[in-house]
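Private note to self, pasted from the team thread so I don't lose it. Backbone tokens:
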């Protein structure tokens, strides 16, 4: 009965119906299906047609590939290579005729088109045409592809608007700023000022003794110098040209190893965690004695927990969220 109704509807329809619209009441048992793997569109080469829709749509992907096939065939026909290589021409045009994504087939889809480019044939040729006809077919497919892309972009905007009207939380996700990236590289600058210069020894005395890296240069103003040796606040360099007292010697060191990152983290926070380690115990006795003398003790009465009170507290816990025995 349903098949008869579908055939009548198919005969009365001006456009061919898709296969997905047919076959009602023909599935008698559940069938296991697998998700279709959709390969991304290949990057267009220079001169190729570019897509204007970048969402997920199988129909758009198939139509775009068909347009790329027609463009490649037009280039092939324009170069007048059909006579030289008729086998490739027949194979390329056959892939265009048998292209997927058009219901029920590409020639039938072409015959049902409402708009075509000037010069395009009304009946799709099954044999490879000349360049002037192929270019009109290509222009028609470009028009259909752009129309599909406008429809898909409009539907995507409407769907996104409807989602945000239904769930305003998504608006906060749109305006949420990107969080900071994980620490993969730690930059540690080492700086010290030049206090004295010894021209005879080619050495500099600095205001402090940084932990220099002998494998990296040091910049003193705009001068790059190489460290030969360093001891305490003295460094021996390869040249003193352009170096003056009062300038700042700087070296940027990079740490990317995980163990070195942990060591740097421990060194930076050790000053905060262990700042009371050197406080003598007698000082704490004075602090506690002062607090006992000045601060008034607050009365604290412990509640006796019995079986009734424990059972009451347990019943207040939610079974779906609370954890416990």
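Design output:
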């Amino acid at each position: 009965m349903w098949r008869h109704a579908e055939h009548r509807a198919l005969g009365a329809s001006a456009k061919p119906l898709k296969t997905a619209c047919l076959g009602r009441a023909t599935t008698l048992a559940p069938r296991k299906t697998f998700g279709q793997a959709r390969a991304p569109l290949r990057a267009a080469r220079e001169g190729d047609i570019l897509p204007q829709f970048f969402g997920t749509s199988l129909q758009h992907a198939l139509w775009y590939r068909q347009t790329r096939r027609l463009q490649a065939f037009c280039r092939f026909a324009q170069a007048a290579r059909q006579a030289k290589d008729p086998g490739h021409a027949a194979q390329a045009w056959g892939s265009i005729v048998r292209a997927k994504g058009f219901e029920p087939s590409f020639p039938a889809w072409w015959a049902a088109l409402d708009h075509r480019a000037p010069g395009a044939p009304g009946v799709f040729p099954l044999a490879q045409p000349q360049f002037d006809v192929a270019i009109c077919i290509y222009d028609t497919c470009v028009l259909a592809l752009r129309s599909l892309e406008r429809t898909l972009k409009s539907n995507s905007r409407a769907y996104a608007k409807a989602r945000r009207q239904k769930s305003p939380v998504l608006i906060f996700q749109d305006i949420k700023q990107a969080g900071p990236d994980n620490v993969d590289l730690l930059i540690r600058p080492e700086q010290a000022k030049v206090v004295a210069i010894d021209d005879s020894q080619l050495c500099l005395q600095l205001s402090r003794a940084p932990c220099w890296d002998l494998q990296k240069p040091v910049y003193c103003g705009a001068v790059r110098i190489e460290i030969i040796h360093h001891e305490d606040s003295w460094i021996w360099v390869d040249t003193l040209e352009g170096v003056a007292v009062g300038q700042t010697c700087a070296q940027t060191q990079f740490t990317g190893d995980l163990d070195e990152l942990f060591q740097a983290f421990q060194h930076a926070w050790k000053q905060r965690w262990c700042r009371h380690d050197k406080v003598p115990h007698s000082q704490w006795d004075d602090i506690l004695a002062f607090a006992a003398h000045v601060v008034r003790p607050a009365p604290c009465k412990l509640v006796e927990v019995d079986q009734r009170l424990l059972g009451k507290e347990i019943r207040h816990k939610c079974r779906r969220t609370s954890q416990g025995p």
